[in-house]
Design goal:
There is one protein chain. With about 260 residues, this protein is an alpha+beta fold. The chain has two domains: about 50 residues, no CATH class; about 180 residues, Jelly Rolls, CATH 2.60.120. Helix content is about 15%, strand content about 25%. It is built from two helices and 13 strands. The strands form two sheets. Strands 1, 3, 4, 6, 9, 10, 11 and 13 form an eight-stranded antiparallel sheet that branches. The protein has a five-stranded antiparallel sheet with strand order 2-5-12-7-8, with no helix packed on it.
C-alpha cells in the first residue's frame, strides 16, 4: 500500500498551487504531468487491479499440459505387456497397509479403523522391483471424495513424495479447470489438458508412457499430459524406481495393472 504523509513534505502543496495557475507542460513531450495527488492515486489504482491477477497466478504455479491428439489405449492382447499382480495375492509387492487382492481380480485398499491421512508411507503399495522406461497401463475407481495416486520412479518407498513422481487420483469429476493436484495431474509439475475423470464408482483408465525422461499420460481415451521431466520441476527425481499406489485411507480399486518395459 502507498502511504501519504500528513506533513513535512511540501511537494504536493507546491504542485497543487501550480495546478491553480495552470498546468505545467511536460518538457519531454508536451503532455501534462500528473499532479502531486493524482500520481500516487494512479499507482495505487494500478496495483489494486494487478494484485488479483498476481494472486491467481501464484495459486497455480504449474503449467497446463499442451494439447495433443488422442492416442488409443493399448489393446488387451498388445505384445510385450506383463501383469504386475500374479492373479492370486500381493507377491512381488510390499506394504503394511490393508491392501487386498480380491477374487474378482481387483486390488483394493480397505482402510483400517482409525487410519487417516497420506503420510503413512509404509502403508503405500510398492513393487519390489524398480523400473526405468516403460508403459504402465491400469484401471482404477474410487469412492466419493476418493483420493489415491500412481507413483513411479520412486527411489525410496518410505519417502515417495520427495523421491518419486505422482500421477494424481482424486474425485474431481466436473471440475472445469483442473490443476496439477487434481485427477490426471502430475503433482507439483503439470496439470492435465482437460478433466477426464468419471464420477465416483466408475472405472477410469490410465496409460502412462515413460521413455528417456519424456512422459505421456493417456486418460480415458485422451492424451492429457505431455511432459519433459528433465525440463520440469521433476528434473532431479530419479530416472528409475519403484511403481506404487498411495494409501490415503480411502477406498480405491485397481485392476488390469500391467507393464511393458521399453528398451
Amino acid at each position: 500500500m502507498l502511504a501519504f504523509s500528513a506533513g513535512g513534505d511540501t511537494s504536493g502543496r507546491e504542485a497543487r498551487s501550480k495546478g491553480r495557475t495552470g498546468a505545467k507542460k511536460n518538457p519531454a513531450g508536451g503532455g501534462r504531468r500528473l499532479s502531486g495527488w493524482r500520481a500516487p492515486f494512479a499507482v495505487a489504482t494500478l496495483l489494486a487491479c494487478l494484485l488479483p491477477l498476481a494472486l491467481v497466478a501464484a495459486s497455480e504455479p504449474y503449467p497446463v499440459s499442451p494439447a495433443a491428439a488422442p492416442v488409443p489405449h493399448p489393446a488387451a492382447d498388445a505384445p510385450g505387456f506383463v501383469p504386475l499382480f500374479n492373479g492370486q495375492d500381493l507377491a512381488g509387492w510390499k506394504t503394511k497397509g490393508n491392501w487386498v487382492y480380491d477374487t474378482d481380480g481387483t486390488v483394493t485398499l480397505k482402510p483400517r479403523a482409525g487410519e487417516t491421512g497420506w503420510k503413512r508411507f509404509d502403508a503405500y503399495l510398492f513393487t519390489e522391483r524398480k523400473y526405468r522406461d516403460f508403459v504402465l497401463d491400469l484401471e482404477f475407481k474410487f469412492e466419493p471424495t476418493g483420493n489415491s495416486g500412481v507413483f513411479f520412479c520412486v527411489a525410496d518407498p518410505l519417502d515417495p513424495v520427495a523421491k518419486g513422481i505422482e500421477l494424481q487420483i482424486l474425485d474431481t469429476h466436473g471440475l472445469a479447470k483442473p490443476g496439477h493436484h487434481d485427477c490426471g495431474g502430475i503433482i507439483r509439475a503439470m496439470a492435465a489438458t482437460k478433466n477426464m475423470v468419471k464420477p465416483a464408482g466408475e472405472w477410469n483408465r490410465y496409460t502412462l508412457t515413460l521413455k528417456d525422461r519424456r512422459l505421456a499420460v493417456d486418460f480415458n481415451g485422451e492424451r492429457t499430459i505431455v511432459l519433459d521431466l528433465a525440463a520440469s520441476p521433476m528434473k532431479d527425481r530419479p530416472a528409475e524406481g519403484h511403481v506404487g499406489f498411495q494409501d490415503e485411507a480411502k477406498r480405491v480399486w485397481y485392476r488390469n495393472v500391467r507393464i511393458k518395459e521399453l528398451r
